[in-house]
Amino acid sequence: MLPFLFLGTRAEDEAADGEYHAVLRCAGLDERDVRRVRLERGALGEVDLADWSGVVLGGSPFNLSDPPEAKSDVQRRVEAELRALALRVVAADSPFLGACYGIGTLGSLRGGLVDRTYGEPVGALDVALTGAGLDDPLLGVLPARFDAFVGHKEAVARLPEGAVLLAGSATCPVQAFRLGRHVYATQFHPELDAEGLVRRLTIYRDHGYVAPGGLEDALAGARAADVTAPPRLLARFVELYAR
C-alpha cells in the first residue's frame, strides 16, 4: 500500500502527537502507513501526489481570517504552502481530507469565503447530512444525524464554486463539503473523542476557544458528550483510497 501523508500545524508537542495518534487510531493505520509532516517546523517541500494514497490535513491554531498583521511568518508560509498544494489537489482530484483547518484551506478556493460569521464554541453538537451527503461515498458512512466535536473561530460563509454541501448544523451551515469527486473538508473533528477534546481544551485554554472562566464547564461538557460516529469517516477514507 502507498502511504498516506498527514499534515499537521500544531506547535505544542502534546497537541500535535495527540492529533496524529488519534488519526492513526481512527483510520486503522500505524506509523509505517503514514508519513507525518509538521508544517510549523519547516517547509513542506515537493509533494508528488502519485506517491500517496491520499492526504489528510489536521486542525490548527492558525486561522485564514486572522488579520494579516497578526500572522507570524510561519503562519504565512504554512498558508501559502497549503494553498499551493490544495490547488494541485483540486486540479488533479486527488484524495484529500481536511479536518477543521481544511475548511479554511479549501473553502477559500474558487471564490469561496471563509470568515468569522459562523464560529462555534468548543463542544459537541448535532450535525445533519444533506441529501448529497447521504449519497456520498465518504460521508454516507455516517448516520443522517450525529453528534460531533467542533470548536472554531472561522467557517465557510460562501462555498467555493462547484462545491457540494454534504453536512451542516444549526449554527454553522457548512460542516462538510466536497470539491470534485475525492477532495473533502469537514468543519467538525472526525479524530476527536472526549478524552482527546479534554486534552486539547487544556492545552489551548488561553487561545480564545473557551470564554474566560468557562474551562471547567467545557471540560465537563466534553466528558458528558456521546460522540461515536465521526471516527468512521477516517476509516472510510482509508477504505476508499488505500492503494
UniProtKB/TrEMBL annotation:
Protein keywords: Ligase
EC identifiers of the protein: 6.3.5.2
Keyword Ligase: yes
Enzyme class: ligase
Source organism, top-level taxon: Bacteria
GO terms of molecular function: GMP synthase (glutamine-hydrolyzing) activity
One Gene Ontology cellular component annotation held by this UniProt entry: cytosol
Glutamine amidotransferase domain: residues covered: 50-193
InterPro entries: ChyE-like, Class_I_gatase-like, GATASE
Pfam entry (one): GATase
UniProt-listed PANTHER family: GLUTAMINE AMIDOTRANSFERASE YLR126C-RELATED
Protein name: GMP synthase [glutamine-hydrolyzing]
Gene designation per UniProt: guaA_2
